[in-house]
Amino acid sequence: MNYLYLVKRTAIAFLSIVVVASVVFGVTTLLPGSAANIVLGTEATEQTIQQVNKDLGLNRPLHVQYVDFVGGVFTGDFGESLISGQPVSELIWPRLLRTLQLATVAMLISIVTAIPLGIIAAAKRNTILDHVVTSGSYIGLSIPSFVSATLLLMFLTSPPLELFPKGGYVPISQGVIPWLHHLLLPAIAMNTIILAYVLRQTRSSMVETLESDYIRTARLKGVAERNVLFKHGLRNGLLPTVTVLALNFGWMMGSVVIIEQIFAFPGMGELIVQAIENRNLTVIQAGILVPTIAFILANFAADIVYTMLDPRISLGDQ
Amino acid sequence: MATDTSTQDDSAGVEIPPIVGKLLSNRRILIGLAILLPIVLVAILGETIAPYDPTATHVVDRYAGPGGKFLLGTDHLGRDLLSRVILGGRTSLLLGFGATALALVLGVPIGLTAGYAKGRVDEVLMRIMDIIMSVPTLLLGLLILVVLPSSIINVVLAIGVVYAPRIARVTRSATLSVSEEEYVMAAKARGESSPYILFREILPNVTGPIVVEGSVRVGYAIMIGTSLSFLGLGAGPPNPDWGFMISVAREHIYQTPWFLIWPSLALLLTVMATNLIGDGLRDVLDPRETGDHQ
User: Which of A22, A142, A155 to mutate: most B Cβ within 10 Å?
Assistant: First the structure.
């Protein structure tokens, strides 16, 4: 383990969080009157703007506000909701946990379906099976999640085929089955694009691996085809797929905004949309920062795990 | 040094014809174009071919099914769906292509500069791009549109900013290898200015990866744009795009599923076509990117 790398990577993660917090602070506070405008919308008058600025502490010197904000981000203090007065962190925490459950189930679905399908398509390359899987992945890749969510909701939650509840959330303490029953449909809807993407990635890296010299050698040595595929091929073919999965976490944190709205799922995404509708500035700031920080930390963790697995990786070169 | 004049010819882009032939013999590009061109054409013609005024309400014919007086049926206010899908397409396509164009305008110079300057400049520029990319795309778009009033221009601006770092990254890595080439060294030795070297010597030789990335982005930009409209933050009522139509249609699915199906289908086909073209371009222009197809 390279300690210099570890230090540098930690510094970068830290700096990223500071910069993202600064940008969110800058965009929502520095623009002339913007914070007050966000809160008041089109009904802003000179008087109400002054009042809001005072309530939000925006009449304090800028550097004080800035240090206060960025410091708050690191201590998990995002201020209070402008609507309910509740601390924003208390509002966010339970919702973040629910959203992470949704994202985890979605991720697991794409692993257990897309990776095997991708491997099969690669192994049976240019057969009808491959063509069906590949064209299917094109459609999956082209469906925006709000369309797939709406269609799934339309066909699978009402009378002829009432397989799933229309939405909502049931905590896992009330049973794994009802919990999963509520999570499954939004997870699938959120997943169509990622599933297709992972499938294609798995297929193309497996195709590449299967054509490599050592696979050819293994075949020539008479290793059974199943072993060639799963022992030799899989290990090397899957590395790029793991990277794709880590990167897709960011995509998921964005698409939950839409999915949770459609399935009335009480997570982060629904909170952000509500906050935008209510012009609840502090919640909007936290709603954008928390998933972003989670994504930065996820990438950080992925990088560290990678270095442990492959000590040759160094920072700087791609 | 002897290659100097010939590379100048290259940079003037004379040798286009053989590439066009190669592109048009790619099956994915052909299928993609066969789907996309009619959609673009219909969107451009807009009002001239729309059978009805897209805002005209025909109260008697609310929730009409497809066929008859209204080819694709009507919505909850009795407006002709075909006309609305046609004009909605104009907005959605404008978002996709406009945002991608903006991302290119912002991202390409950054990528060229970083890849050519290397060292500190490269490090700083690319770290900034990484940080922008660490904000989930839809959230960054939301953040921008929360501050700016929602209009088509601002949606284009938001998506353009969101995708610029990806373009910059691709441009940079292509520039890194090209900037070591002899003709770049030669231009430097001749004492050409940096902008000249960046835009006249390097840019013409890195267009392949940029075109590929740009074409892939169009589809994603349309998706993000329609998603923002779906959330009510995009192009609003005066020019409803497919995303906005779908969000309204959701409330009426039990009266008429067609209201939902047509814009969804149009959106799906458009994004699929741009994805096919993007993949085809990648096969032809940047073959090392795929394990498949050589």
Answer: A142
- Domain span at residue B101 reads 29-44+71-289
Question: Residue A317: pLDDT above 50?
Answer: no
Assign 3-state DSSP to chain A and report helix, strand, coil percentages, each to 5: 80, 0, 20
State the Cα–Cα distance between residues B211 and B220, nearest whole angstrom: 15
Domain of residue B272, CATH code: 1.10.3720.10
> Taking Cα atoms as reference points, which of B20, B27, B100 lies closest to residue B279?
B27
Exposure string of B235-259, with b = 16+ CB inside 10 Å and e = fewer, is: beeebbbbbbbbbbbbebbeebbbb
Q: What is the pLDDT of residues B230-246, one digit of tens each?
A: 888 876 666 678 888 88
Number of domains, chain B: 1
Euclidean distance between CA atoms B85 and B43, whole angstroms? 9
What ipTM does this complex have?
A: 0.80
Is B126 inside a domain boundary? yes
Q: Which phi and psi angles does A80 have, rounded to 5°?
A: -115, 150
Please give the residue of chain A at the shortest CA–CA distance from B255.
A154
The dihedral formed by the CA atoms of B291, A109, B136 and A86, expressed in degrees to the nearest 10: -170
- A246: which 2 tokens? 């880590």
CA-CA distance, B78 to B62, in Å (whole number)? 4
In a domain, B200, yes or no: yes
- Mean pLDDT over the full length of chain A: 81
Q: At what angle do helices A145-156 and A176-210 cross, to 10 degrees?
A: 130
pLDDT (tens digit per residue) in A195-206: 888 888 888 888
How far apart CA B275 and CA B266 sit, in angstroms, is 14
Chain B residues with CB-CB distance to A262 below 8 A? 250
CA separation (Å) from B126 to B112, B129, B177? 11, 5, 16
Q: Residue A267: which of A72, A89, A91, A73 has the closest Cα? A: A91
Rounded to whole angstroms, the Cα distance separating A110 from A131 reads 20
Say if B51 falls within a structural domain: no
State pTM to two decimals: 0.83
Q: Which residue has the tokens 């047509």?
A: B262
In a domain, B52, yes or no: no
Query: What Cα–Cα distance (Å) separates residue A289 from each residue in A18, A145, A168?
Result: 11, 22, 24
Q: Which residues lie closer than 8 Å to B167 by C-beta, 6 or more apart?
A: B103, B104, B106, B107, B108, B111, B210, B213, B214, B217
Residue B243 and residue B226 in contact, taking contact as beta carbons nearer than 8 Å:
yes
In whole angstroms, give the CA distance from residue B215 to residue B36: 12
Domains of chain A, each with CATH number or no CATH: 88-317 (1.10.3720.10)
Minimal C-alpha gap between A229 and chain B (Å): 16
The 10s digit of each residue's pLDDT in A181-197 is 889 899 988 888 888 88
**Residues near B268 by beta carbon (within 8 Å), at least 6 away in sequence:** A139, A142, A143, A147
Which chain B residues are closer than 8 Å to A288 by Cβ? 135, 139-140, 142-143
Angle at Cα A16 formed by Cα A12 and Cα A20, nearest 5°? Answer: 175
What is residue A80's three-state secondary structure? strand
- Chain A residue whose CA is closest to B173: A318
Contacts of B223 in chain A (CB under 8 A): 144
Element (H, E) at B236: none
